[in-house]
Amino acid sequence: MDLVSPAPDPTAYSSPIVAGNTMITSSANNTIMGTGQTTSSTTVQQPPSTLSRYENQKRRDWNTFCQYLRNHRPPLSLSMCSGAHVLEFLRYLDQFGKTKVHNQTCPFFGLPNPPAPCPCPLRQAWGSLDALIGRLRAAYEEHGGRPEGNPFGARAVRIYLREVRDFQAKARGVSYEKKRKRPKQKVATSQPQQPPHPSEAAAATATE
């Protein structure tokens, strides 16, 4: 005798229902053993919140730094991280830089637009490093770090960034000094002339 499998119950499957931007999955006629009762369940999935460009970049930078700590020899924990380790991380990033920084022996040292290529290395631009430290400093405190123990705000890191800025300014012939804003000139508004008093007008005609 052949065994015949029962036909599937079409009501036993759930079908997604899309309402606007929310997906609702309904499941009905779920039989409870021994009671014959049916129940229905509804699951509401909220759309994921979109992060800003700054928040996405900050998350990527933080993951990169944590990966650097894990690959460190010996591996470092976040609580053991200091300003010296932050400087090691910044120097490590120089190999991925795209900014040409001329050496002092280069004939193009101090030229903003070199006329020919040179073998000087590529580095991370000062502006990129400064923005990176700002994001990592905020991420450190968001992950439970104490502001007074923030390694990204250490004095050694600030000095390093200032030295990188000054050297790159000399090597590339770029000035980072802020330009003074010219004071706005006040435009003198001409007041409408009031007509002379009748007595003054009479006196003026009498003298003519």
TrEMBL record:
Pfam families: ALOG_dom. Belongs to the plant homeotic and developmental regulators ALOG protein family. InterPro entries: ALOG, ALOG_dom. It comes from Rubroshorea leprosula. GO terms for molecular function: DNA binding. This is ALOG domain-containing protein. The keyword Transcription applies. GO terms for cellular component: nucleus. GO terms for biological process: mRNA transcription; response to light stimulus. Residues 53-180 form the ALOG domain. Residues 172-208 are annotated as: Disordered. Its main location: nucleus. Keywords: Developmental protein, DNA-binding, Nucleus, Transcription, Transcription regulation. It is found in: Nucleus.
